[in-house]
Amino acid sequence: MDTMRDRFIATTSRLLDEDPRLALVLAEISAAGFERTQRRHPARVINVGIREQLLIGAGGGIALTGMRPIMHTFASFLVERPFEQVKLDFGHQDTGGVLVSAGASYDWPAGGFTHMSPGDVALLDTLDGWTVHVPGHPDEAEALLRHAAAGDDRVYVRLSLQSNAETRPVTGDRFLTVREGRGGVVIAVGPMLDDVLAATEGLDVTVLYATTVRPFDRTALRAAVGVRADVVIVEPYLEGTSTTATNDALADVPHRVMGLGVARRELRRYGTIDEHLAAQGLDPASLRARISAFLWRRRGR
């Protein structure tokens, strides 16, 4: 199976052939994958080099002309390093564009902490008007990328090497009910779904699958809870990122919320992706223990 980043390159190349409104701005990362596309569209495939602030600034300028820019690099260089440009060149100017990241929270541990970005979604959450997609499979990445490219708003598509084994239908806005139960609700975000399903096997819980986390699907969550709600959110980035959104959605319902994700402490032994998942308590065995302890605590078990 190809990776989400492979699918991004193939899909964006086709989109550039199909839609003259689109432009792609790169900062060296993935540039080799777009060499043929750049030869076909030299004015609409721009590599600014290792200049991430310029990457966003150029995209913002393209957006002001009425075109639709797609900007791409590692998440830490796409959201964190040029955050001022994201805030001003898109938010303040009220223009639209698509940010497409690679690297996720720790997809390339050998690259060190400079190439890790567990706080990207939380950081974008400080800005108004951003849609955030977190696909869990390359097919979902393609669908959400096409959805983003066709729009006019501000969109972040967060790609990862982590992937679920099976693709799910995604619409670009709603949570999907994967499993139904009565003992609580677990929201699995993007590539965390398979581990959540393994962790909750045999537990009486509803599992919701989220590939779009902003805007947050209040309707699906409220439909899944009863008169009292216990909710666990398992996200592949900074723990607690969606806790406030969940609390807001259930403001008039007695509820408890636990956010599971990447901890704030820095892990300095970089290891592998699987080792990071285990160290963060996001592998199936750890998730089962943490989810069970939270959900059953109220029941005195």
From TrEMBL:
Pfam families named in the record: Transket_pyr
Domain Transketolase-like pyrimidine-binding: 2-167
Signal peptide positions (record): none
Transmembrane domains' residue ranges: none
UniProt xrefs under CDD domains: TPP_PYR_DXS_TK_like
Name the UniProt record assigns to this protein: Transketolase
Species name: Streptomyces xantholiticus
